[in-house]
Amino acid sequence: MSSRSAETQPVVLAAADWIEIRRHLHRYPELSGEEYETTAYLKAVLEKIGVRVADYGLKTGLVAEIGGGEGPIVALRADIDALPIEEETGLPFASEHPGRMHACGHDFHAAALIGAAQSLKLRESGLPGTVRLLFQPAEERAKGAKQLIEAGALEGVGAVIGQHNKPDLPVGTIGITPGPIMAASDGFTVTVRGTATHAAVPESGIDPIVAAAQIVTALQTIPSRSIGAQERVVVSVTQIHAGNTWNVIPDTAVLSGTIRTFDETLHARVRERAEEIAAGVAAAYGAEASVRWSGGPPPVVNDAELTRLAEQSAAALGLTARGGVTSPASEDFSFYQRHVPGVFLFVGTSGSREWHHPAFELDEAALPDAAALLADLAERTLYRLAEPNTST
Ligand code: NI
């Protein structure tokens, strides 16, 4: 789109157009951090409907704004990246990029945010503030939210709203749950150091494999013996590597895995216990162990007041709000919530496959609802931030 677009009359896109946008994005998926065509396409669509795109110096992803003035700012966020998966849906608009697929429905999220932008644009003059649209790259690698925050996209923002499709909820149902709803994800690598020796003379060395095996077992006592039954914690060891032949005890063993928690305090506690167990068990066998963490996103924790406003939006739109909907997956939306209150909603899409499956599909009938929900909740939140003492 040329720079002349600002001079041309904006067009109004209807729900059928939003679905076409979703299909276009689905057809041309791009991986985390490589969303160049996706960004250019979304920018062109936003300019076509007269929404101003802001310059935050982003490589991929984009920020746009509707409304303005002295009032509050509410951010609406959609992720836009795809996965390294070969699509097996057989859809007429299936991926034309080999080995890449929108298998988590981020095409749906981006199109829904375009729909919300269109609805808000039509009532822009009546908005008591600004709605900032965050089309976020690299969610699947938990990098995009941090990039937008570092670029300044949260400056002045009073609340952030996001959503994710949910295949196991029917179309017309929205999962709206206060408190923790998605898990913190952490990867760990434990390196156990012993002393190599002939396999027939183990007493001459320190066997790291025996120590590592005990560490694997002992780590399972974190959920069962260190954390209360009312809490949700997962500890999974997923890789063990040691040695390279049958008659030598090696000098090191390396094991890795992941922990999932729904609470920041608990998250710190689980990490601490894992380090104590690794070091303590290794020491009992004369070995040494160190733990290296690859920190993932913290848990997604929904603000109570925003959750209540979301319930009001759902009711106003004739959608069914369902509480208690959570997921042990992680989402980098949580990084925004470290800075501003936020709410993350699950939109029912009546799918038959879970996220990241090569045959993942969703019912597009949910798209207009998802767009309407974002627009209504953004406006409702703006009013709440503008006049915090008004009862609703
Ligand atoms: Ni996703």
Give structural notes.
The protein has 392 residues and is an alpha/beta fold. It has two domains: 3-182 and 299-386, Aminopeptidase (3-Layer(aba) Sandwich), CATH 3.40.630.10; 184-295, Alpha-Beta Plaits. Helices cover 33% and strands 24% of the residues. The chain has helices at 15-27, 36-48, 106-122, 144-151, 208-219, 221-226, 264-284, 304-316, 333-337, 367-386; strands at 52-54, 62-67, 73-79, 130-136, 157-166, 173-175, 179-182, 184-193, 197-198, 233-242, 248-249, 252-261, 288-295, 300-302, 320-322, 342-348. It has an eight-stranded mixed sheet, sandwiched between helices. Strand 3 (73-79), helix 3 and strand 4 (130-136) form a beta-alpha-beta unit. The two termini are 43 Å apart. The relative contact order is 0.18. Bound molecules: nickel (II) ion. Nickel (II) ion (NI) binds at residues 104, 106, 164, 355.
